[in-house]
Model the fold of this input.
Amino acid sequence: MSSLRVRLLLLVAVVLIPSFALLLTFASRERQWRREAAQSTALQLVDRGVRDQQEAIADGMRILRAFSMLPGVRSGSAESCAGVLATLADMIDEGWSVSRTRANGVQDCATRSTTTLPRDVSASPVFQRMRAEREPFVGTYVRSGQTGELLLPLNVPLLTARGAFDGILSTGLRLHWFNVLAATVGETPDAVVNITAGGDRILLRSPEAAPSAPEPAADNPITIAMRAQGRGVIDAPGIDSVRRVWAFDRLPSPDTAPVWLLVGLPASAVYASANAQLVAMLAALGVWLVVVIAVGWWATDRFIVQDVHRMLSATERIGRGDLSARTGGTARTDELARLAASVDDMAERLHDRQEREVQAQKLEAIGQLAGGVAHDFNNLLTAIIGNTEIARELIEPSHPARSELDEALHAAGRSAALTRQLLTFARRSELAPRVVRVDQLLQELLSLLRRLIGEHIALSLRVDPDLPPVRLDTGSMEQAILNLVVNARDAMPAGGQIEITAQRLSVRKEQAEHPHGVPPGEWLVIAVRDTGEGMTGDVLAHAFEPFFTTKPIGQGTGLGLAMVYGTVRQHDGHVWVDSRLGEGTTVFLYLPPALEAAPEAPIPTPDVPLTAGNAQRILLVEDESSVRTVVERLLRQAGYDVRSVADGAAALALCDHDTLADLDLLISDVVMPHLGGVELVRAVRSRRADLPVLFVSGYRETEDLDELLASPHTVLLDKPFTSASLLQAVQQLLTRTTAATG
Done:
């Protein structure tokens, strides 16, 4: 029972797995949300820095353009220009130099300069660009020669009244906004903000890196992302190997020298709260799991293991063959109680099944006995019919014994029909389908059915006038209808009505599926309806199972509907039962119409003269002496040269090369001792493939016989047979062989 406890507790643990999975999912989503929030924050800080820089540039340009219009700056002397520029420097960026360059490239006026004025800057790229474009522009970030501070140059043209180029007014814009941004970012430990030129050279960083800190590599993920996207976010380690959430965007600068502003928030700070929350939740879930396992261990022992032990003990006894073992049930009404009841019910069913198996074994034994009796009886009938026909031919038609012999032949025919019924019961008969008219078959069967059901039940037949012909084995189909009528009779002990109908049914492909599961096509439907007790759903579900019956022991085998189902399926048809308790039962037989346009007409058997032979040589192999004697006599009287033996081994010993060459026909029984007919024919035909063979048999016991019957030189004649049917089969084979050989 400890194994059961462990399994149940493992089941509890497995049930809790989704909780862990859900927890991990929530933690993953929390981390993702934290990451997205950090990316959004970093990008907002970058946007703020870029916006502040743009606003500072716009303000500086506006002031520069305003002062460029002043006469003292545009065309005044160096002394008057210096006074004006000093005021301008205080307005734009306190303490930083503002300079004027004349149209000839001479810088003659500046608020603060590290070089001696005037000086010639006509060769500088800034002067050349301004003289060519005469448009304001922002220069490349540079460092102050005096303090090393990062500055952004601003330049506006000086124009004459007529718009001609008259010089440049320039200043260096300090990055106050960067300091404000750095202070905001610096509130988070290990957070970084920097300005990078070209993606691989840091111009400005907060906090400042050590003097020996390396520059970003060209293949750094951050560098690659900046060059590819211009603006965006990325998770990657910095040059200090600390992983951060980075946001970046381009700062205003000439296109030839791209400059980016980057803000990096450390991943440890981003995920710290999410990780702490995950640890707390895992700890709580672990404690809960321990509590559940402890309680589950006690509960399984108290409410499950004890009852399971009783059921296990009962099932072990049942397994040893003690079908009287029972669990004793349980006082509770839960699933275990139902399981205990199921075990007890299983024992009951096994007991009933054992009894049914014994009954089935009896029926199988009866079937084998019936087959053996039919086989021997067919041999006896063959001898009786043959000898009676010989005796009948030996006396005059007016002889008083002639009528007695005719009556004996008639009785032998009825006995043959009885034998066929025994073979059908023993399942040793083959279907012999032929095209028939169902209305005629039902009409011929009606009188027998009326005598069968009794006068307390009304029987009616209703058929459509345009029924198609059907290919049927009439004997098996008559037996199927007979079984249905008998079942209907037994369902109405106090009387009632039975109605048999036959009609044509067309199921088109475009129609919805037929309620009885019949595929599209043309069908002939035979229905047998009764007004009896009907069946419950449970009984209806087992109606076609062999040996299932609701009748008392001794009044039914449970084979009736099973045989009906098998017969209809053998004819490629379908069966459906519609029954309701208290409302009667209807059985529908769906049969496919025959391909022939009209029913086949019966072929009369011609009279064959007993002297039809022409001394053809026949080898007769038959183990039953009475049959062998009468067949040999019939053939000799008909003019054939006959040699007979009692079994296949003796026949094979006679079949040397010369005997086979002279032999015209082999007549052999199928079932014989020592060597059967099938083995004999195969051995003989290995040396002479075209030898005609006539098999005679009381029943077919081997499937190999069907392979031999596929040859045109092989015919099967069922026992018992008349002299006329024997001679006709012999003549047909000999004539067919003569025509084939020319």
Q: What stands out?
A: The first helix runs from residue 2 to 68.
